[in-house]
Amino acid sequence: MVVATPIQIEKIREVDVPVIDLSCKQSKVAKLIVKACEEYGFFKVINHGVPHHIIKNMEDESFQFFDKPLPEKMKLVGSADPFGYGSKNIGLGGDRGELEYLLLQTNQNAIDDTSKFMRCRYAVSSYVDGVRELACELLELMAKGLGVPPSSFSHFLKCFNSDSLLRLNHYPPVTHTSHSSFQRGIIGFGEHSDPQILTLLASNFVPGLQISLGNGVWVPVSPDPLAFCVNIGDVLQAMTNGRFVSVRHRAMANSLPTQSRLSMVFFGAPPPEATIVCPLQLLKQNKPVYRAFTWAEYKSHTYAHRLGEVRLDHFKISDDEKVT
Ligand SMILES: O=C(O)CCC(=O)C(=O)O
Ligand SMILES: [Fe+2]
What we know:
Layout: E1 11-12, E2 19-21, H1 26-39, E3 42-46, H2 52-66, H3 70-77, E4 84-90, E5 95-105, H4 108-114, H5 122-146, H6 154-158, E6 165-171, E7 187-192, E8 198-203, E9 209-214, E10 217-220, E11 228-232, H7 234-239, E12 249-252, E13 261-268, E14 275-276, E15 293-294, H8 295-303, H9 319-323
Parallel strand pairs: 1-10, 2-3
Antiparallel strand pairs: 3-11, 4-5, 5-6, 6-13, 7-12, 8-11, 8-13, 9-10, 9-12, 14-15
Helix pairs in contact: 1-5, 2-5
Bound molecules: 2-oxoglutaric acid and fe (ii) ion.
2-oxoglutaric acid is lined by residues 167, 169, 189, 194, 201, 208-209, 249, 251, 263, 265.
């Protein structure tokens, strides 16, 4: 008997994603953030306090880097392994995309070492300082909203050996000649959830990012150079016992004829040896959904699997384990 594989029909739905104004009253903001994290695992923040010139400076430096000829880029930063310059190959599992990128570690030694491509490494370190501070503020608001100790999540990002990363993604226009069949709907960066704790994404005015509502429904996120997009990562889903959802998202290839899309993505992560567990206050009568694991363990599991897999499922406690 031939069993047909169900074909998932995709639908694009225009939904107003939550936009949270950080200049409002803290207690109100904390509640709104928790709601957005439970409902979507995603929101935008405005009035976030990261100075515009720092974002603009990083954007200019990134464009300058991507504008260089390939041999020069390679000479400056080397081929992604996993840090450095990559093109079309995303991840170690053979995933491909319509972009080039630069992946950087964010601790100060690494910035000094790898930001040679910038005329001014100050651009990278001030951007990283700004987004790290914002990520910690958001994680503390989440902790407040959830009623757990304030630094439950943010302390990981403040560790000297936090494994946080900065990824600069450059999506050049995908021309009609390079993709003769259906030009619309080409994927630039395939569906996935971010493995870390929290992601802060800034982009220029070119659209591309979409978030998933499940069942093949995709929501385009309008680009807003004054806002940061905030994604819950897998580790925060685990640390909230599944209450927050790590949002599945993707970026469409850039179909504007002349403008490039740039996204600058900060991934706030724990140090490698950190153990990921849910604070007791969140368990109450609920059984833990995930077993404890270290960030190093989660990373090696992630790298061994394809981008599109639900990688956190591997750490779920099975029903048999729960009763024994
Ligand atoms: O460029 C984008 O909008 C998304 C990129 C992304 O999801 C990532 O780098 O993890
Ligand atoms: Fe992502």
